[in-house]
Amino acid sequence: MYTKRIFPVRVVVKWTLPHILLFLFLPVIPVFLFDVLELKWLHAPWLPLGVLGTAVAFIIGFKNNASYDRLWEARKIWGGIVNASRSWTVMVKDFITNDYSITDLSANELQSVKREMVHRHIAWLTALRYQLREDRAWEMHLKRGRTNLGFKAAHYRIREEEISLEEKLKKYLSETDYNAIISKGNRASQILGIQSRRLKELMEQGLIEDFRHMKMANMIAEFYTLQGQCERIKNFPYPRQFATLNYWFVWIFILLLPYGIMSEFDVFGAEIFMLLDKHPIQDSAIHELQESMARHFVWFTVPFSAMLSWVYHTMEMIGEHTENPFEGGPNDVPITDLSRSIEIDIRQLIDDTDIPEPYVWINDIVM
Fold this sequence. Notes:
mainly alpha, 14 helices
């Protein structure tokens, strides 16, 4: 998540530089054929191209709206995880008591039980975010592209790629719990299963009574729901038929664009030349320069075509990079930072020790 008001111009230019160079090169060929080799028939009428451009703009807008909806839904889900985690911790803190216990536990023993339950919840958060950072086939072209790899190396880091999940889970789980879940596929679900089983044991020991057990079990069900909502977004991509056709339509428009505006610039240059021909002073260097520019005014097709192509293609790229909100990109939901914030918050609620510091992020990109 980028946290400043606007992206720096240099970052945007660096991100799109390979395409900017390509868009500057593509119009050179038709303009050279049109102006230098005088193939004046080599152009397309602007009207159908304008209709195509309008259609492409609507399709890009539809895709970007859908991509933003996926991003915003993901953020709302993690907002729910934040709130539910606090509620869970308060329940652990206040519901687990000796009020109905068969054998009274000491204050330290009660604190140990509460710490176990909260740490297991942090383990669930950790396993969930690692699962959400896993690669999917439809994300690979974004994560492994040369431009994106270079941008990542220079501007941000993904902490899930620096420390293994196994190493992180050992900090929060007992050896028994760790061995029970580490070989499983969906480790986050397994951790919630252990949490539910532990709740039943606490009820049997009299540390919580039926009503409190029901309320805490409902919270575990809520965590399952929130996890499932995250998995729905992660495992179901933006429909590839829409994404693929949108990509093709953008490139069809980009390739045809110079052929549509060449003749317009050529006509405009001829009008300028006629105006210059009526100028009273025609032997100055400035006048000759203006006439030369008017004769070859069609070459202005190159920068204008590149600018329009850059706008359309960059908007398409924005939608493409927004549609997967957990992949580990700079515009994603900052689940790593949110997990650390939750951990600090809930461990402080139970007066835990060795609480970690918030992450320090660089270049205003929070992951």
